[in-house]
Each structure stands twice: as structure tokens, then as C-alpha cells.
Amino acid sequence: MSAHATHLRGTAHRGYLELPWGQVHYRRSGDTAGPALVLVHQSPLSSATYEPAMAALGAHGLNTVAIDIPGFGMSDAAPAPWSIPEYAAALWQITDALGLDRIHLLGQHTGAIIAAEATRLRRDRVLSLVFQGIPLYSDEERAEKAAGYAPGYRPALDGSHLQVAWNRVRWLYPTISAESCSRQIAEYLSVGPDYGVAYRAVFAHRTDTDALKGVPTLLLHGSEDVLDRMNDVVTAAFPDAPLVRVEGGTDFVAEERPQEFADAVAAHVLAHAAAAEPSFKPVFTAVVEVSGGRAGRARSRTGSLDVALTRPAERAGGDTGTDPEELFAAGYAACFGGALGVAERRRRVTAGPVTVTASVTLGTVPGGAYAIAVRLSVTAPECPQETLEELVALTHTICPYSNAVRGNIEVITEVAGGS
Prior knowledge:
By secondary structure, the chain is α/β, with parallel strands linked by helices. The chain contains 13 helices and 14 strands. Strand 7, helix 8 (231-237) and strand 8 form a beta-alpha-beta unit.
């Protein structure tokens, strides 16, 4: 097992969001312009469950975000125990803060119940679902589990409570490695003695599977997953959903078979990503008439723009003419700066004074054709470097100039924030 599968750090980018109840920790990998996949873990664990598969998911071009459910991992807890609808509503607040609109949702166990309820609340925003084991308990099972499941522990100076937690993990997952058990113990301890708070929310909740009809759904888990026993119930509830069982995999198939797991998830997401493409809705049309090419004149229909154009090689001292590259640079820098303001509002942060400088270079490419390349320098001395980097990454997914040129020209971005 690779080192990053056994601890809470890993190699994916990590960050925090500020939400009304406190901070939410998340991991992110892949192309921020790709299909958005949000991963919701089982309780009482954390997003570290998915750390080994993050790079593989990102390699498929997915904008993958694994969150720590509030109260778990490194996320702050809610001020009082939440119900599943409250966890689901919080998931949309987290998604909004991440700057994501329409998403693909993957949930495991408790996370699957939250994902199902989140989809019921905002079906218009869910493009597809992946359930990595969804506990569709009967009323009798829910009542039985509510009476005595996950009783918690009491910290003891002799460390006996650690043995209690260890024995529980080993009882649930007798075939997993000692390293994986150790990581889970750290996650149990991070939640505290009452690690069953989200379990109780699950047992008190009845999932409305009828409300999910028509949502493209994949059932994916290891053959040794503790919820594999529920396949008959789950496939009956989701008759159109393919069932993929990774032979020999446990609840932790994402760390045991990261590539196989990522390939199956990505195939499902990418098959349903086309629905994410919004139809173009005109907001504003600018019309500029140019006569004479690079040595002509540019006039806007509004009359606010009326400038002479000159070729840079022919520009003489005192010549006030501009050129297409300068005009493109001005447009890109202005648009990017405006989009960064949108990113600030979505992340609920303030960057302070921001300067965007766009350098546009005209050059040749093999075959004799001409092309341009762009360098964007974003400076915000009052904004912490890491925060600014996150804002700029989000801005590239919002700015229409960035979206228009992505994959067509080289765009290098330089970010200079404060300490």
C-alpha cells in the first residue's frame, strides 16, 4: 500500500472553506474545467478514504473534490446534531462555496444517504450519482440499529478506549491492513467519543428512492463491502442502475484498487457529462467595425471606442495607435479581473486590491501559421498566496476568455499574493 493511503495528508491539494457553522476541509485534484465530481465519505471516517484514488480520478480530466462531512475528518462540527436533510443542505452550501454548479455525486454508506437526499433537494444540479454502498434499511432494521449501534467510547488513561475502537474496526473489516486500521483510529479519535452522531441521522431517515428515478446512477463497491449483502434491495430500488462489484475489494476499494475504482467512476461520469453543457444564453453583444486591417481603424457601434490601429513594427515615436494584441490583452485582463470578483463572492473571501496584467505575444508555429500566447500576472498583496491561488484557479473556470481559449493557446498564469 502506498504511503499516502495510510495517513490523512496525501498528495491531493487540500484547503478549507468558511461556512456559517465553521470550516470545511476538502481535497481537490484534476482539471478545474472538467466535469465536477464531489465525493462524500462514510462515517465516522473522512475524505482520506479517497486520497489514493484522487490522482487517478484527476487523470481522467475530472474536477474531483472530496469533502470532510461537517464534524468528521478536519471539518468543524455543526453546533448541534444534524439530520440527513441538514447534512444535505450543507452539502449544497459547500458546493456553492467551491464554485460548482451542476455536479456528479459519489457517496459511500452515510455519504450515499446524504448524496441521495441532496439530489432530492436539488435534482436540477445533479447530473449523475454513484452509490458506493447505500444502506436502504427497513424500518425494523433502522429501529434496531438506532437502539445500540456505535455506542461510543469513554477516554481512559490506560488507553483501553483505543483498543475498543481498534476492535470495532477489526470486527467491521477483518481483512484490511493494519495501516488502514491505524488511519481509521485517527479518524475515530478526531470525531470524539460520540462517533455515531451521523449514524443516528441515517437511522432516523427514510431515503426516498422514488424521487431519484431518472437520475443516471451507478452502483459500485467491493465484493467484500459490508453493504454488499443489500444488493437485492438496492438493485430493486434502482432497477436501471448497473451494479459493478470489484472482486475482493472491501469498503476501502478506493485505496485497495485506486485505478480500477477511478476507471469505473470516470467512465460513468464522462458518459453523463454532456448534460452539463449549458445552452448558450446571450447576455450582451459588442460590435466593433474595423477597416484597413492592422493599419486601419477600429470603431465600436456605441462610439465609445474609436482608435487607430498600427503595426507594431511600423510604430513611430509618439504614435498613439494600438494593435489587436493590445486590445485582446485589455479585454482578457479586464474580464479576468471581473471574474475573480465572482470567485471571491463564491468562496466568501476578500482578496483586496487586485491587479491583472495580460501579456499577449504574437508568434509563428510550424507550417508558417501565426498564433498567440498569453501570460496573466495576478497580484493581490493583501491576499494570502494560497487563497489567491485557489481564487485564480476558480476564476479560470468562470472567465469567458479563459473558457474560450482553453486548449487552443498557451496561457501561463503567475500569482503573487501576500505572506
